[in-house]
Write a structure and sequence with these properties.
The protein is α/β, with parallel strands linked by helices. It contains 3 helices and 5 strands.
Length: 138
């Protein structure tokens, strides 16, 4: 028989050691947290597969050029800078309505933050504009 501790009154104190059980629960919890899939938000972008492509001259009348800059103001439309994204959005929508068949050229500074570019791409998606090009340095 297993020896049990007795207190001063003579009654036996039966206690179960929960440490191994807590260890197993902790290990299972850590395993589940590490293997759980978190939902990642994504934005589909088609990237050309060929590394060499023909250079084409850009004409201002057939294109709308958007600059994404590294420091505020982050956005410029055809060289005009906008301090607030709402102002930029209104100017872009009105310019795009004037030239609905124009290609949108996005030229981002290589030091620019990702968030202004993602905000711009979300605007393009909301406006259902698929005729865009992103200029980048090789």
């Amino acid at each position: 028989m297993i020896g049990l501790e007795q207190d001063d009154a003579g009654s036996s104190i039966s206690g179960i050691d929960l440490t191994p059980l807590l260890d197993i629960i902790f290990i299972v919890l850590v395993f589940l947290l590490l293997t759980a899939n978190t939902q990642l938000l994504s934005l589909a972008i088609e990237v050309p597969t060929e590394s060499t492509s023909e250079l084409q001259a850009l004409s201002q009348d057939k294109h709308l050029t958007i600059n994404v800059m590294a420091s505020p103001p982050f956005w410029a439309l055809d060289g005009k800078e906008y301090q607030d994204f709402k102002q930029f959005e209104q100017a872009f929508i009105s310019s795009f309505k004037e030239k609905p068949d124009a290609k949108v050229i996005i030229a981002a500074d290589k030091e620019a933050q990702v968030q202004p570019l993602m905000t711009l791409l979300a605007l393009m998606q909301r406006q259902q504009i698929s005729n865009t090009q992103i200029l980048m340095e090789p």
